[in-house]
Amino acid sequence: MSMVTLTATLVLTTAFSAFGQTQAASTPTPLSQLLAEAGANNPQITAANYGVRAARQMAPQVTTLPDPKFTYQQFSVGSPKPFAGYTNSDFAYIGVGASQELPYPGKLGLRGAVAERDADTKQAELEVTKTGIADAVKTDYLQLAYLQQTLGILRQNETVLDQLIQDATAHYQVGQGMQQDVLQAQVNRTKIVKEITMHHQQMGQIQAHLKGLLSRDQASPDIVTEDLTVTPLQRTSEELLVMVRQNNPQIQVDASSIRKQDAQVASAKREGKPDFEVGYLYENTDRKYRDYYMFTFDVRFPRKKRVDAEIAEATDKRSESQQTLNGHLQQQLADVQQEYVKATSDEELLKEYREGLVPQSDAAYRATLSAYASNREPFIHVLSYFTDLLSLKLEYAETLVDHEAALAHLETLTGATLR
To answer: Dihedral (C-alpha) 370, 371, 377, 378: value to the nearest 10 degrees?
Structure first.
C-alpha cells in the first residue's frame, strides 16, 4: 500500500502543476516585436507603400501645363523643291515659331485635387493592408500560443497517465484491479499521444505561415510565444462602435473615396469650360523682302454631350462610394457587436472555469485518486475524473484564446489598443 500512496502523491504533484503552463523553450518573443517586424518587412506592405509613393507623383503630372510645341515651316513658290522661290519671291519663307496650350483657369488645380484624393485613398488602402497583416500576425501568434500552452498540458498529463497505468498494472498484478482498467488507461494515453502529434502538425503549419508574414527564412528558428493571460475588456460597446466610425481602416478608405469622387465631380464640371492655345510664328523671306510675324489664338470648345456624360459618371460613382461606405459601416458595426458579445461572454465563462469547474473537478479527482490508493474506489472512476479534468483544462485554454482573438479582432475593427 505504501507504493500506491507514493504513486498517488507523485501523480497529484505532477497533474495540477501543468495547468496554465507552456513548454520549456527558448526566450518567448512578444507579439509587439513581431508586429513591428511585419510592418517593416512584409512584402505586401512594402508593395502598397510603393503604390502610395507612385500615386503621389500623379498630381505634379496633371497640374503641369501641356507640353509646349515648337514649329518649323518652309514655304516654297514655283516648285515643290525645298527653298524654291526663297531668293526671288516675297511669298517664299522659312518660319520658326512656338505655341502653348492653356487650359481654362482652375482645370489643372481640380485635376490635381482628384490626383491628391486618389493618393489619399491609396494611403488609406495601405493602412487596410497594414491592419490586415497585423490581424493575421495576431491570429497566428494567439493560435500558436494556445497550441504551445496546451502541448505542455498534454505532455504533463501524458506523464501523469503513465504513472496511473503503472498503478493500475500494480493493482491488477496483486489481484486488486482488472485488466480492462489498464487497457482503458492505455487507450486514453494513445488519444493524448494523437493530440500531441496533431499539435505538432498544426504548430508547424502556423510557424510556416507566420514566418511568411514576417518575411523570415522558413529554416529560421521557430517562434516561441508568451503565455496567454486573460485581458479584461475595458471598453463599452458604445465606445467601440464610435471608434469604428472614426478609426476603422476600411471606413477610412470609403470616406477617402467619397472625397475623391467629390473632386472628380467638380473637375468634370470644370471640363466643360473652353481651353485656349496661343502661338507665335516668325517668317523670314530673305533679306530683300520684309519678314512676316504671325500671332495665333485658338479656342477649343468641349462637346457638351461628352462633358455631361463625364459629370453623370462622376456623380454616379460618388453615389456608389457613399452606398459602399454605408454598407461597410453597417457590416463593421455588426462585427464589432458580435466580437464584443463573444469577448464579454468568454470572460464570464473563463471566470466559471477558474472559480468553479476546474477547482471542483480538481478536488473530485484528488479525492477519487486518494480513495483508489486505499482500494476504496475503482480505477475507472479515477480515469474518468482524470479525463474530465484534462478536458476542462483544454476547454479553458480554448476559451482563453477565443477571448484574446476576439479582442485582437476588435482592435482591427476599431483601431484601439485593447491588449
So the answer is: 30
Digits of tens for pLDDT over the chain (419 positions)?
334 433 444 444 444 444 444 444 478 999 999 999 999 999 999 999 999 999 999 999 999 999 999 999 988 888 888 888 878 888 888 899 999 999 999 999 999 999 999 999 999 999 999 999 999 999 999 999 999 999 888 888 888 777 777 777 776 666 666 667 677 778 878 888 898 999 999 999 999 999 999 999 999 999 999 999 999 999 999 999 999 999 999 999 999 999 999 999 999 999 999 999 999 999 988 877 888 999 999 999 999 999 999 999 999 999 999 999 999 999 999 999 999 999 999 999 999 999 999 999 989 888 888 887 777 777 778 788 888 888 899 999 999 999 999 999 999 999 988 87
The b/e string for 49-77 (b: 16+ C-beta within 10 A; e otherwise) is eebbeebbebbeebbeeeeeeeeeeebbe
Contact criterion met (CB below 8 Å) for 244 and 339: no
Q: Which CATH class is domain 2-414?
A: mainly alpha
How does DSSP classify residue 16? T
The three three-digit cell numbers of residue 411, written as one number: 482592435
DSSP 84-138: TTTTT-SS-EEEEEEEEEEPPTTHHHHHHHHHHHHHHHHHHHHHHHHHHHHHHHH
Say if CB 127 and CB 249 are below 8 A apart.
yes
Phi/psi at 94 (nearest 5 deg)? -115, 125
Rg value, the chain, Cα: 38
Residue 29 CB neighbours (<10 A): 14
User: Can you tell me the distance from the alpha carbon of 379 to that of 180, in angstroms, rounded to the nearest whole number?
Assistant: 10
The one-letter code for the residue type at 41 is N
DSSP string, 219-272: TSPPP-PPPP------S-HHHHHHHHHHH-HHHHHHHHHHHHHHHHHHHHHHTT
Phi then psi dihedrals of residue 93, to 5 deg: -155, 165
Q: What is the DSSP string of 164-189?
A: HHHHHHHHHHTTSS-HHHHHHHHHHH
| Alpha carbons 168 and 3: distance in angstroms, whole number | 12
Q: Tell me the three state secondary structure of residue 216.
A: coil
Measuring CA to CA, which residue among 158, 182, 188 is closest to residue 170? 182
Single pTM value for the model: 0.83
